[in-house]
Amino acid sequence: QKKTIAQVAMDAQAAFLGFAFVSLREEQDIHISFGDVNKRALNPAKVRQLMVGFKDLSVRNWINPLPVLVRREWINVRKLTREPIQSTVGPEVEWQPAAKGQWVK
């Protein structure tokens, strides 16, 4: 049976662990994949536009946080905040040993 929007929203609220900054660099113990969900080809013009926006406006990643699905045991949930982050200052994800080698999508 298909869930209603309200049921999905309740599931999401129950699964919510918190907010934190996360590094997107490749040199870490976890693997991050963006292409599995949004299977579009790279658009060089859009990349340039994004780079100009970062240069002119800076990176303001706290304004539109990116939801990420992870297993609770992969992160130290005590390092997260339940309140939205309002600036460049905030907690950072602390990966636990159980996350080593795992894919985050």
Could you characterize the architecture of this molecule?
The protein is mainly alpha-helical. The protein has helices at 5-15, 44-57; strands at residues 31-32, 103-104. A two-stranded parallel sheet has the order 1-2. Helix 2 (44-57) links the parallel strand 1 and strand 2. The longest helix is centred in the middle third of the chain and has 14 residues, at 44-57. The two termini are 25 Å apart. The mean pLDDT is 85.
The unreliable regions are none
Structural class: mainly alpha
User: Got a strand count?
Assistant: 2
What distance lies between the first and last C-alpha atoms, to the nearest angstrom? 25 Å
Give a short account of the largest sheet.
2 strands, parallel
**Chain-averaged pLDDT:** 85
Can you list the strand order of the major beta sheet? Answer: 1-2
- Give the overall shape: globular
Please write the string of helix (H) and strand (E) elements: HEHE
Radius of gyration: 16 Å
Percent of residues in helices comes to 10-25%
Tell me the strand percentage band.
under 5%
The count of helical stretches stands at 2
Brief sketch in words of this structure:
This protein is 24% helix and 4% strand. A two-stranded parallel ribbon has the order 1-2.
Q: How does the SSE layout of this entry go?
A:
Blueprint: H1 5-15, E1 31-32, H2 44-57, E2 103-104
Parallel strand pairs: 1-2
Task: Pick out its properties.
mainly alpha; 105 residues; 24% helix; single chain; 4% strand; two-stranded parallel sheet; 2 helices
